[in-house]
UniProtKB/TrEMBL annotation:
Pfam families: ArfGap, PH
Superkingdom of the source species: Eukaryota
InterPro entries linked to this entry: Arf-GAP_dual-PH_domain, ARFGAP/RecO, ArfGAP_dom, ArfGAP_dom_sf, PH-like_dom_sf, PH1_ADAP, PH2_ADAP, PH_domain
GO MF, one annotated term: GTPase activator activity
Protein name according to UniProt: ArfGAP with dual PH domains 1
An example Gene Ontology CC term for this record: cytoplasm
Cell compartment(s), UniProt: Cytoplasm
SMART domains: ArfGap (SM00105), PH (SM00233)
Phosphoprotein found in the keyword field: no
Gene: LOC101074698
Family annotation (CDD domains): ArfGap_ADAP (cd08832), PH1_ADAP (cd13252), PH2_ADAP (cd01251)
Residue span, Arf-GAP domain: 88-208
Keyword terms: Cytoplasm, GTPase activation, Metal-binding, Repeat, Zinc, Zinc-finger
Amino acid sequence: MGVSSRTSCSVMTAGGVTVTRHANAESGLLTAACGLHHASLSGNSAVTEQFSKVASAPRAGVRGFRPPRRRIRAEPSATMTSDQVVNRQRVKRLVEKPGNGTCADCGAADPEWASYTLGVFVCQSCSGLHRNIARISKVKSILLDPWSSSEVEFMDSVGNDASKAKYERLVPAFYYRPSHTDCTLLRDQWIRAKYEREEFTSVERQEPYSAGYREGFLWKRGRDNGQYLSRRFILSEREGVLKYFNKHDAREPKAMMKIGSLNATFQPSKIGTPHGLQITYLKDNSTRNIFVYHEEGKEIVDWFNAIRAARFHYLQVAFPVAAVSELLPKLTRNFIREGYMEKTGPKQTEGFKKRWFTLDDRRLMYFKDLLDAYARGEVFIGSKESGYTALPGLPPNIQSSHWQFGITIVTPDRNFLFACETERDQKHWITAFETVINRPMLPQDYAGESRFYLCVPPK
């Protein structure tokens, strides 16, 4: 993953071969690789400034990450043997076989790299992660590197489908399978779990996240001072809670989070560390945020999948006739959109104030700071059938003091007025709102709406 700018230039070599060089300007930091991904999902630049605010959180990276080397595309030279030309064409044809047309690890289309020791075709980004396990996986470019006949024959004998049948044979239903849009940490640990630890070839190797009980220490951000301190966490499916303790020997937990309302999502750029995990839960029907991380990537990803396992078993009991495919999207979720907007109060006479907004399913929450533990207010976003609408602009008699690109959220009870800094932000927010509003409400949504309005209305 990453954001790159691509430039090209052609150079005539001494041998008369024209070589086209493509330079990718990529971030060398893992934090930026993950962070830019989340920023692209939320469509805002606010996360950049947060890096300067989290000096108390040590930076932990994925060890040994090396970006793939620069690509140099060249026409076959006169020194290339006929066998090498044939082998390169054979490898290209192998990508066209069923299963090989997408990355074996993240699903990205048109892979241009391959592990010639594992027999799988991968994208450029995942090829860089394979270099972290070089004793197991050695990668080559399909288009640029020379291939021997034995290597091509091995690739032909394995391929992505056969590899998945071996290394993904026992992946638990709840285990998160990252895609090319996920941050580097999730993809790195997925690759390590498959090929390095071979966790999905034996159920016994999945105990850290499948046992129904997990206990350990995580660095947790303090609600008031923003410092990260070591806290003991316990996840218990039997008790139906995730809890943490302020002191290592404390008997009573500082907080107990019911599995029924629990969510976890990786937020590396927001928290300021590649291993940053945001945990949310409902307390008195209001959203509470907890920000944690661990120095070891495997540990924090195991916690993440342990939470998913607990949620999966909880939902199986709560909805016994629901298919597994219906439950999986409910285990954990990424926020639909996050970013800064300005808002005014319910009387619409107060000045507009800049706030951090998070759209989480049907809850629109706003915070004074993006790492606040509690939201200043929450707005329920229903469906169009229930009278909800998102409109561009503000009423004629209302004008934001700074940002000019307004949004009006129409609800059955009142209108909510927001303003965005740019027209692009305005369009992205309206698209996000419409995604929710155009989705029919489920019975549990109506139940959530009724509980929502029993709380103090947002200010």
